[in-house]
Amino acid sequence: MKDVTPLTEGWTLRHERTDVPAAVPGCVHTDLLAAGIIEDPFLSRNETAVAWVGREDWRYDTVLGARDTAHERTDLVFEGLDTVAAISVGGERVGNTRNMHRSYRFDVTDRLDPAGPTSLSVEFTSAYTEAEAVRALVGERPNAYPEPFQYIRKMACSFGWDWGPTLVTAGMWKPVRLEHWSTARLATVRPLVTVDGSTGRAELRVDVERTPTAGSLTVRARVGDHTASADFDDSHTTLTVEVPDAALWWPRGYGEQALYAAELELLDADGAVLDRWERRLGFRTVTLDTGADTHGTAFTLAVNGEPVFARGVNWIPDDVFPSRITPDRYRTRLTQAADARVNLVRVWGGGIYESDDFYDVCDELGLLVWQDFLFACAAYPEEQPLRSEIEAEARENVTRLMPHASLVLWNGNNENLWGFRDWDWEPALDGDSWGEGYYLGLLPRVVAETDPTRPYWAGSPWSGTWDHHPNDPAHGTAHSWDVWNRTDHTDYLDTVPRFVAEFGWQAPPAHATLRRALPGEELSATSPGMLHHQKAYDGNGKLERGLAHHFALPDAGPAGFDRWHYLTQLNQARAIATGIEHWRSHWPVCAGTVLWQLNDCWPVTSWAAIDGDARLKPLYFTLRRLYADRLLTVQNRDGRPTVVADNQSPAPWDADVRLRRMAADGRTLAETTVTARAGARSVALAPVPDDLLPDAGSAKEFLVADAGELRALHFPVRDREFAYPAPRYDVETVDREGAVDVVVTARTLLRDLLLQADRLAPSAVADQGPLTLLAGESVTVRVRGWDGDGSGSPDAVRAALFMVEPA
Predict the structure, then answer these.
(1) β-strands 701-707, 710-714: how paired?
(2) Which residues are catalytic?
(3) How many CB atoms lie within 10 A of CB 520?
(4) Residue 191 exposure: Cα atoms within 13 Å on the Cβ side
(5) What is the side-by-side order of every strand in the sheet holding 286-289?
(6) CB-CB contact of 455 with 368 (8 Å)
(7) pLDDT tens, 721-751?
């Protein structure tokens, strides 16, 4: 059996300026931060002060112990090197790397001294130096940002993005080890998991590396309680394990997430175990319907034959220093997604292929994974030295990730096909390569050869063919960004895309996050730190434009900051609700919405639902309502307000909806009940009767629709035009074990009441987001992480309560 020696201790980071202890896994920035040499780049404007780190070369040194193993081979294995590295053992070069997204293995058997220690050095060249050298070699290519990220196989967003800092890393970002083995080892195991009737089939394609003296080998496999074995004399074999009456793996909300323990052992001619591979497998089928119909070209995922409305979020690296992301952190963030009723996570192409810990949690929680290949917002050269790196990277990561039942789609790139057509790339390229050969040639071939059980799509957005515009909402996947960039969120109502793979609206992070990230700064929308932590082009201008459509603009200075902060966060939640409610109501024509974005990688004003300090923005709670199995909304159909009952649950829903036409002063002007009968996974409509319709253009009437605990509202005019009463309400606090219950009783209409719990204490968390109370109604918001202020608790709560107020 092989032995493993982890190489995690005793490293030193060396540079002409300093030598410091180094953590492996880790990176230069985190080592310098731990040593107190640089300030935290997430705070204030420290990011700019540490820009020098990314332009320097660095070296990591350690010492390997004496060779004292009887194994025939010893390999030095790097799971991830970021990015351009030269490896030396005993002062002699053993290899070079130039790809963050691959692992590397070097035979060092004859380089380890049996009599004493041997030096190991890993020298990193600045990613800028490499990228600029490749650019000089292959020629200039356009991209969406002024950094050279498309010339190096490295996490693109470490060069900055419109939500991320420019912190260009280097280091051993994944584990390093020595592997000692004899005779043979498992090089790759590719499980092709399919379902034939009620039988689950795991076809295990095995590649081994052998020593010259290796004889006959055996592999034996077990999946659950079922086994198979095969003998072979070369470096490849295939064996199949069948599981009769296999329990299927289903997405969240569609069934259980059945996972089978799978094990494969490699044995020598005497039956001794040489190597072992272990994973968990789930039996399911996945198809992608891209058929033409009267609406255009579909884009509908189906699992086990069941079409799925994708309630999705886009995922970016959860930290700009990904070596800091722990298994617990993955579990926390993905559990938050699941708790928000998300059923699909798209791993975006400007980041990384995530750790197996990420996909393990998705397997367990039933979160479908759409995996981008790592290309984003740029024209990528197809010449060497990049092309061979990209093929090797693709093959390795497809092989690594294919055991995960949650992975349902491979996607070629993010926005590059669209960029070629719409972002003036075509004339600038003048015939040079730009990546099309990857997305329409190399990558689909790699997937077909390596993992034919899953669908491949060339890009997002992509309409499936150059016969249609790449971002044609009637065909394939669409990104909806003109609304945020140029117009108003009500314009989401103008189209019904087949699948909305990106759309979003910005808002600042939580107040306590800003206070921590900008210490000592007097906050305003345009204070120096706020502007530094706003990376989007004209981001604040777009926030202001978005507010102006709906609200009277608050004072721009510190005196108006609290109001600005609340309204921008509310407008983000309102914008996303406008889009998702509309698009869900058009299922099955629209088969999915994937919010940009779930998470942040540092404290920043962005499109995220969970901010860079892991605090939940109001959008998160709104998403929890929008992605519930049952959604009640009021939409316009044929020119009139219509109650929509969207039922994505497996049981029919006869929604008895209480309709009330209300006056702003709290009076009920008319009332009735309508029924919307929605079958399983279907949508039902019920027109609002004429006498329940608020007068068109009325500033004093609105419609309330209630079905059990679900509520939908329809206001004929925008907030700035509506005659909201001056809000009046009572507040009571009740101590509970480990929590405080905040009880708010409305004396008037309270629109989008929000308790910003982090204003009570930085650790405080509320269990609810914005909600609307009618006069006489009460709500209890449970707050954890705050012990109250005794008799002053209601006053403290009032200072943390916000709502829509009269213009």
Answers:
(1) antiparallel
(2) 415
(3) 7
(4) 29
(5) 286-289, 300-303, 306-307
(6) no
(7) 999 999 999 999 999 999 999 999 999 999 9
Which residue's structure tokens are 């600029």? 132
> Judging by DSSP bridges, how do beta strands 592-595 and 310-315 pair with one another?
parallel
Which residues, at least 6 apart from 271, have a Cβ–Cβ distance to it below 8 Å? 218
Q: 127's torsion region: left (phi>0), alpha (psi -120 to 50) or beta?
A: alpha
- Read off the pLDDT band of 40 (50, 70, 90): very high
Three-class SS of residue 202? strand
- What is the separation, in whole angstroms, between the first and last Cα of the chain? 74
Strand ranges for 298-411 from DSSP E: 300-303, 306-307, 310-315, 344-347, 368-372, 407-411
Mean pLDDT of 677-699: 95
Task: Return d(Cα 775, Cα 727) in angstroms, integer.
Answer: 10
Residue 789 has pLDDT above 90, yes or no: no
User: Peptide bond preceding 175: is omega within 30 degrees of 0, i.e. cis?
Assistant: no
CA-wise closest residue to 629 among 574, 678, 681:
681
Residue 89 clears pLDDT 80, i.e. is over it: yes
Q: Quick one: tokens of 328? A: 């617990």
**Which positions ≥6 away from 541 have C-beta within 8 Å?**
none
E strand segments, 53-183: 58-64, 73-78, 84-89, 92-98, 104-107, 118-125, 176-181
Q: In the 3-class helix/strand/coil scheme, how is 85-104 assigned residue by residue?
A: EEEEECCEEEEEEEECCCCE
Number of Cβ within 10 Å of residue 277's Cβ equals 18
State the average pLDDT over residues 87-103. Answer: 97
Q: pLDDT tens digit string along 207-257? A: 999 999 899 999 999 999 999 999 999 999 999 999 999 999 999 999 999
Rounded CA separation 551/804 (Å): 9
Given a cut of 90, whether residue 491 has pLDDT beyond it is yes
Cα–Cα dist 148/142, whole Å? 9
Q: Is the pLDDT of residue 792 over 80?
A: no
Q: What is the spatial distance between Cα 82 and Cα 98, in angstroms, rounded to a whole number?
A: 8
Q: What is the average pLDDT across 620-643?
A: 97
What is the rounded distance in angstroms from the CA atom of residue 657 to the CA atom of residue 699?
Answer: 24
Asked if residue 83 has pLDDT above 80, the reply is: yes
C-alpha 702/C-alpha 119 separation (Å) is: 75
Give residue-wise pLDDT tens across range 287-301: 999 999 999 999 999
Question: Model confidence at 1, in pLDDT bands (50, 70, 90)?
Answer: confident
Cα(656)–Cα(575) distance, rounded to whole angstroms? 27
**Mean predicted lDDT score pLDDT of the chain:** 97
Structural Rg of the chain based on CA atoms: 28
Q: Residue 273 has what pLDDT?
A: 97
CB-based contacts of 121: which residues, under 8 Å, 6+ apart? 59, 60, 61, 87, 88
Residue with token string 């130039």: 98
Q: Is 244 exposed, middle or buried (0-12, 13-18, 19+ CB in 10 A)?
A: exposed
pTM score > 0.90 for this model? Answer: yes
Rounded distance, CA 535 to CA 459, Å?
25
d(C-alpha 526, C-alpha 776), whole Å = 39
Mean pLDDT of the 4-28 span: 94
With beta carbons less than 8 A apart as the criterion, state whether 780 and 772 touch: no
DSSP annotation of 628 reads S
